[in-house]
Amino acid sequence: GGSNLGIVMRGADNCIIRNNVFSGHSNISIFGENNSSNCLIEGNTITATDGNSGAHGIAFHGTTSSQNVDRTRIIGNDITIANAASFGIEVGAFGGNNPDQVVVSGNVITGGAAAHGGGISFSSVDGGTITGNSYDSNAQTVTIAGIEVVASTNVTVGSNQVLGAAGLLSGITLNRSSYCSVAGNVIDGFGNATNDRGIYIFSNNDTLNTQSNSVNGNTIRFGASSGTNHKGIYLQCNNASTDCSNNSIIGNIIHGNSGAATRGIAIQHDAGTLDRTLILGNQILNVLIGIDRESGQTGTQILENVFGGIGSSDLGGTAGSGEVAVRLNPVLGQLNIASQLQLASGVLKDGGGFKHARIASGTTAASLHATASATWTFTTAFADANYTLTATIDNPTGIPIVAHTDNKVAGSIDIIIMAGSAAAASGTLNCIAIHD
């Protein structure tokens, strides 16, 4: 430790850097650039405690015109980071070609004793995955985001955990990026200043759009209450030449803090094109306004969302041209003559069309991507196997990730979890099944 850089790769293909310990470097601990492709960075422990604003834990940059850092795999590393604008992991073009086939999985990233940029950053990446990682801001000021995707396409951000506090500006951001997926992540706490947000999808550049992205099945929990307008999911278009169309926000669970100016989901049109946004099947709880929108957006569809503990209104702002807002959205905890239903005693857990349960996931072996299976057997079978299952994990040990299902029949289904690190993984599966 204590030197400028830890390990540097330039023009070095097929490298493996595994099970090393780095500390005290004033710049990047592991750095690859200029045609350093097909590299595996796995199982390293990095503590970055001093240095300049670019002292990332692990970074791969194209750097020079026509140079590549493709097929980089950064897996199962433990990183502590605490420098003003630095990230635990950063991959991007930065003057070279856009990287592709980038995998960042199963890493544990923690903020040190000072402000820092965030956990993971992809910049100008054309194809990659950020999955099964854990990021903890350590209650420090985070100037950018827990996970950011900038000027990128075809990136999947899935099954990550972001633990934040008042200093976390954004949990996950898609900035000038298209055809990306943000799915199954848990954001537990984020900042409560004006316009702080759990997930932020936006574009403010006249040459790069933010379109055809999906934000599905995430769980977002607000942090401490304040009197400012902070948001669970925030979609913003604010450049006259920018297209922010065809984005979908589906099946997310947003737990507010009953703050005086909070929004569950907000759509803001400052300039450009914000068309055909789909907001479907979200659960929005304990905010001032459930879904807030501005008149400049067009063709928005707001369907089958569920609201509870709403301080003012389920839909706020002004409807845009061509908006479809189906007002059969049930509101939890209220009953009035407009056919809204109070559910005072819970929901039957084993009905003919809807079932829910909490079951043990089983425990994987202590190996990255090891799997374990749990069978959910229904007390009363569905009529057939035409049902949809959703599962999340509580009380995790290690980094359990819901991977897929198997052996789906009318009376039962197997749920497979996968370890996102080299440690054994397990937890409690919260399961919901809905028949067609």
UniProtKB/TrEMBL annotation:
InterPro entries: PbH1, Pectin_lyas_fold, Pectin_lyase_fold/virulence. This is Uncharacterized protein. The lineage of its organism: unclassified sequences, metagenomes, ecological metagenomes.
